[in-house]
From TrEMBL:
Gene3D superfamilies named among the record's database cross-references: dinb family like domain (1.20.120.450)
Pfam family, one: MST
Location of the region described as Disordered in the Swiss-Prot/TrEMBL record: 1-37
Feature: compositional bias, Polar residues: 1-12
InterPro entries, A to Z: DinB/YfiT-like, MST-like
Protein's UniProt name: Mini-circle protein
Organism of origin: Streptomyces rubellomurinus (strain ATCC 31215)
Length: 186
């Protein structure tokens, strides 16, 4: 008897995928986006969807589980972390006083990821709100070469950095989810 969950996937067409193409919201039959800005936004959208998909179907305990000891990471912690990061990026591009941290001191986004339904609901609401606010702030700057904010960061750099952050954490989410219930797939 093993404590390791049995590996499984919902996909039937391609067994190494998370979902069948017809059920995958990231998969579309439409042509690829026009231009660099459209391409960057599409990649960011897809990584955001991937994170949500990795969390779907789990209860509060499973989302909060630190499934790869001794790491403090959990799927819920990743959601909270990315909400915090979205806020930080928005702080980089404004000229106003920075918004306060959502969850407090360093690593509070992971440390406070506890198995309570209200914490789970709050984390997903925070993530959605912070993503929308950062997206709206950047929508005012369609020129990827424009430098904005106190740090004079290029819009392109910020978009690529956001994609990198989500991609890295989606890799973590793959491993965390597999350890929680055995579900695999890209």
């Amino acid at each position: 008897m093993s404590d390791q969950p049995t590996r499984w996937t919902q996909a039937t067409v391609y067994p190494d995928m998370w979902a069948d193409p017809a059920d995958d919201p990231r998969d579309s039959d439409s042509p690829s986006p026009e231009g660099e800005l459209g391409t960057l936004r599409e990649y960011l959208r897809n990584y955001r969807l991937t994170l949500r998909m990795k969390c779907e179907g789990l209860d509060a305990e499973q989302l909060a589980r630190r499934s790869v000891p001794p790491s403090s990471m959990s799927l819920l912690g990743l959601v909270r972390h990315l909400a915090e990061v979205e806020r930080d990026w928005r702080n980089w591009i404004t000229h106003t006083e920075p918004l306060p941290k959502l969850y407090g001191a360093r690593d509070a986004d992971f440390d406070g990821a506890v198995a309570e339904p209200a914490v789970v609901d709050g984390a997903f609401a925070d993530l959605e709100r912070e993503q929308a606010a950062t997206d709206a702030a950047l929508a005012a700057h369609p020129d990827l070469g424009e430098r904005i904010g106190r740090e004079r960061i290029a819009v392109r750099d910020l978009l690529v950095h956001r994609i990198e952050e989500y991609a890295r954490h989606c890799g973590h989410a793959d491993l965390l989810r597999e350890c929680v219930d055995g579900r695999v797939g890209q």
